Amino acid sequence: MRTQALTLGLAAILLATAACKNQSAENRMNAQTPEAQKAAGTKTIAAGLAANGKFMAAAKAAGLDQTLAGAGPYTVLVPDDAAFDKAPAGTFDAKPENRAQLTGILTNMILSGTMLVDDIDKAIDRGKGKALLASMGGTLTATKDGGKTVLTDSKGNKATITQGDEKYSNGVVHHVDAVLMPAKPAAQPPTKAGQ
Amino acid sequence: MTRLFLAAGVAALAIAAPASAKPGGNGGGQGGDKNAVQTNRGGHGGGGSAVRGGGGNIEARGGGGAAFRMQSRGGSHGGEIASPRMQRQVFAIQEHGHGGGGRAMKIERSNVGHANVVEQRGRGSEMKLQRIEQRQVRNVEHNQMRGNQLARDRGQAMGAEMKANRIERVSNREALRDELRTNRIERLDNGMFVRNANLGTRVVRAEDFSNRARGYGVGGCPPGLLDKGCMPPGLASKLLGTRISDAARIAELSSVPYSVRYLYPDTNDFYYRYGDGYMYRVDRGTSLIDALLPLAFGGYMPGSYFPSSYMNNYYVPSSYGFNSFYPDSPYNCNRYVNGVIYQVDCVTGFVENVIPMYASGYGVGQMLPTGYGYYNVPYQYRSMYYDTSDYGYWYAPGAIYQYDPSSSMITSVAALLSPGFNIGQPLPMGYDVYNVPYDYRATYYDTPSAMYRYNNGNIYQIDPATMLVTAIVASILT
Q: Contacts of residue A187 in chain B, CB cutoff 8 Å?
């Protein structure tokens, strides 16, 4: 009888511990300091984008969901789900061994600061039809095509802004119709110090 | 009167008998008459106790009741001295033995014509003897139990003593080994100091080599793997296809920490274990390691030699400010190949650390570079990203990483950072577009005399004529 009581007690403690650990793990997954949450405002890019959309799924797999819930500000180019489907098979696979590639692709579509479509268009005009945008994963070129703003990656892939200026507390989102790929890491290193 | 004398004589004999009985005297006299049989039975009391109790003295006194007869018949055996407890037991037996002695007195009486009485009393005595014998058997059994207990106690004491001796021997051996090892380390240290004196100011290097001498090096791990858990890449790759139980004997494997388990989720087909800088995927069906994911990154792993031809050419680029964040020192040479910074020992050519750049895909689930385990988040972000017991933050050009302190694995990217601006530098390529946050646009907007750009928490002023960064006009995070 006493043994049974002891066993039951032990099991209860183990269950409680496991529950705490799981809860702790969940908290850690969304861990963000209160100050960072406050700076991000009430509706962040991470909160505003469809949670079940392919972009947010990929962002979560790459650990960038917290980035988009952070203070920012960022300008995020979000390909629609159809654009994800057009990408080569396995490009956005959330498997651990694919995470590095996924991270590189997503960061290529995140830019520092807040750039509205009008800002990009003005820069294109100033630049005589072309403007360069530094993303977190490389450099994009902005042009105008038939009244629409088009972004081109280093590989020549083009993406048109289909719906722009979706504003959030920590930045702005422009929906695009294609995935922009990052440049392959430089195979040829610089040959002189400091270059 | 005669009776009185006889009684006194018998009493005297009875009193003297135990003293005159030889130690170990066996009460077992040989004889075919009834008395002899009876005496023998009385002697059995003593004999029984001798056999079971193991005390020779008991044997002597057990037959004490009939001792005088034993003496006369010459039946005796040597005995040994028993313990005091045994002696107490002996007294009880002796009393039973006296029963036999009383019977002997009655035999004497039969000699003076009281045969009938003696016979009747003899029968009663026989029954009494049986009772006595039973009591003796009980006592002897009790005595044996006590004896066994004593033996056990003694055995335990001896066991404890032997164990203590063994521990002492082991301690002495370990002390000797420690002493030898200390001497060896001292010799090596001395050697290093001599070398240090020859090399001038290379104190830090000397300490580093000294540490390597303590148990690492020959037959162990390459120096660069000291901080990474001592698993050469070649050995790690050989674990592919081995059973997880076999691999666990070679690599120090553990379960994936809860905080990063979502990055390496278990499925019905496989689960993960990590250790020594690698994540091992294990097939549930076969328990074989079917995939090996390096948590560190790059073509040259810590501990391997960096090609000397690369040392003279593959410098860290100035773009993104990498070269100022990873400056060379007289002892550390930083080189950049394919999106990865390699920290190389300038003298030995060993890769000591591998730091992938975020732009090349470095991120969550991978390990924090070992050389940068300290808090280094840029000042303007410190109020938002500070270390807690659950997670820490680490900055490298491109991002502020959140990591799990227990495993040093990156759990998320807290913030993406673009390369910072320095006052007086030309505006880098890619900042053609106005990007100031909403709340500051009313104050900082482009004019023919000034442009404004946002970067890493600050708003910078740019001179449109020269395109040089002229000032930080606002810090929006502090």
A: 338
Please report, as a single letter, which amino acid is at residue B218: V
Residues 42-101 of A with CB under 8 A from B: 62-67, 70-75, 96-97, 99-101
pLDDT tens digit string along A89-117? 878 887 777 777 888 888 889 998 999 99
**pLDDT > 70: percent of chain B:** 48
Q: For residue B366, list chain A residues with Cβ-Cβ distance below 8 A.
A: 100
Taking CA B294 as the corner, what is the angle to CA B293 and CA B299, rounded to the nearest 5 degrees?
A: 125
Six-digit token string for B105: 């007195």
Full set of structural domains in chain B with CATH: 2-156 (no CATH), 223-294 (3.10.450.160), 308-416 (no CATH), 421-478 (3.10.450.160)
Distances from the Cα of B425 to the Cαs of B5, B378, B421, B457, in angstroms?
139, 20, 7, 18
Residue from B394, B136, B266 nearest A96 by CA: B266
Nearest CA in chain A to B386: A33
The answer to whether B416 contacts A110, with C-beta atoms less than 8 Å apart, is yes
CATH number of this structure's domain A41-176? 2.30.180.10
First CA to last CA across chain A, in angstroms? 77
Looking at CA atoms only, how far is residue B433 from chain A in angstroms? 5
A131/B432 touch (CB, cutoff 8 Å), yes or no: yes
Contact A134 B429 (CB under 8 A): yes
Cβ within 8 Å, pair B384-A21: no
Q: What is the pLDDT of residues A130-159, one digit of tens each?
A: 999 888 777 899 999 988 999 998 888 999
Longest dimension (CA), chain A: 87
Give the integer Cα–Cα distance in Å for B203 and B195.
10
Q: Indicate the burial class of B88 (C-beta count within 10 angstroms; 0-12, 13-18, 19 or more).
A: exposed
Cβ contact, residue pair A139, B455, below 8 Å? no
Instruction: Tell me, yes or no, if A34 comes closer than 8 A to chain B by beta carbon.
Output: no
Calculate mean pLDDT across residues B354-383: 73
CA distance A11 to A6: 9
How is chain A split into domains, by residue range? 1-31, 41-176
Q: Do the Cβ atoms of A104 and B360 come within 8 Å?
A: yes
Considering only CB atoms, A63 lies closest to which of B364, B385, B434, namely B364
Is the Cβ–Cβ distance between B387 and B338 less than 8 Å? no
Contact B297 A100 (CB under 8 A): yes
Query: Which residues in chain A are contacts of B310 at CB distance < 8 A?
Result: 189
Prediction pTM value: 0.54
Going by C-alpha positions, the residue among A41, A73, A154, A144 that lies closest to residue B434 is: A73
Q: Per mean pLDDT, which range of B8-22, B214-228, B397-411, B426-440 is the poorest?
A: B214-228
